[in-house]
């Protein structure tokens, strides 16, 4: 399964890092790291099941649909649009139309500290864009002129500071956002952990003493 759409436009090192991370079980990273874990109040609300990509940030100061649309048009390959909707906490900033536009831009996903709408369209696996947000609303943003946001600034999403260029990984368990170097530093260990787990699960199912398997014996 290709998770990193549009990765052909990326530097080789970054594309390889994203490819390797895409094969990791994301919660495995939780065994190895303490920082970068977005609040569980932000949940996966759309399908496909996972997203992985490069943070492209928007700090939304007013409920301005124009600012969101502008940001979407500026997205590059494999970007995850990260919206801090602190200036519009009750207005849905993403919905069926914006998700279709994100998909057309080759984006990998969208992460919103705020709410979204058109949930049935977002939950359709064919939407092509994995959406994480705090919840849903029928109240949406309006076209206010497009000046209501700041692009590519550090934002805070679910208690985590996210800088443009950070990597964003999300699935049904939650979202992780960290510097590429931090994720690269635990990649070997994460791959080893994932490689060991099937044998461990088999051994437990086969009745081996869990005290030994779980290092308690
Ligand atoms: O208007 C909005 O903020 C989001 C929306 O409904 C859409 O993208 O379809
Ligand atoms: Mg809509």
UniProtKB/TrEMBL annotation:
Gene source species: Streptomyces scopuliridis RB72
Broad EC category: lyase
Recorded superkingdom: Bacteria
Record protein name field: Putative 4-hydroxy-4-methyl-2-oxoglutarate aldolase
Family to which this protein belongs: Belongs to the class II aldolase/RraA-like family.
Function, in words: Catalyzes the aldol cleavage of 4-hydroxy-4-methyl-2-oxoglutarate (HMG) into 2 molecules of pyruvate. Also contains a secondary oxaloacetate (OAA) decarboxylase activity due to the common pyruvate enolate transition state formed following C-C bond cleavage in the retro-aldol and decarboxylation reactions.
UniProt GO MF annotations: 4-hydroxy-4-methyl-2-oxoglutarate aldolase activity; metal ion binding; methyltransferase activity; oxaloacetate decarboxylase activity
Record GO biological process: methylation
Keyword Heme part of the UniProt annotation: no
The enzyme's E.C. designation: 4.1.1.112, 4.1.3.17
Key words, A-Z: Magnesium, Metal-binding, Methyltransferase, Transferase
Lineage: Bacteria, Bacillati, Actinomycetota, Actinomycetes, Kitasatosporales
Name of one Pfam family that matches: RraA-like
């Amino acid at each position: 399964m290709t998770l990193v759409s549009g990765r052909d436009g990326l530097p080789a090192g970054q594309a390889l890092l994203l490819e390797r991370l895409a094969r990791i079980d994301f919660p495995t990273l939780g065994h190895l790291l303490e920082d970068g874990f977005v609040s569980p109040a932000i949940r996966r609300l759309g399908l496909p099941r996972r997203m992985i990509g490069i943070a492209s940030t928007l700090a939304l100061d007013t409920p301005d649909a124009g600012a969101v649309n502008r940001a979407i048009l500026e997205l590059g390959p494999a970007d995850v649009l990260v919206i801090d909707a602190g200036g519009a906490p009750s207005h849905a900033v993403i919905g069926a139309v914006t998700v279709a536009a994100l998909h057309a831009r080759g984006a990998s996903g969208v992460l919103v500290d705020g709410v979204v709408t058109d949930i049935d369209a977002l939950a359709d696996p064919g939407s092509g864009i994995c959406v994480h947000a705090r919840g849903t609303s029928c109240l949406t943003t309006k076209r206010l002129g497009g000046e209501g946001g700041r692009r590519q600034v550090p934002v805070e999403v679910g208690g985590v500071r996210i800088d443009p260029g950070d990597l964003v990984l999300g699935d049904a368990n939650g979202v992780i956002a960290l510097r590429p170097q931090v994720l690269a530093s635990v990649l070997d260990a994460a791959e080893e952990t994932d490689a060991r787990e099937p044998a461990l699960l088999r051994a437990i199912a086969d009745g081996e003493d869990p005290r030994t398997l779980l290092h308690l014996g």
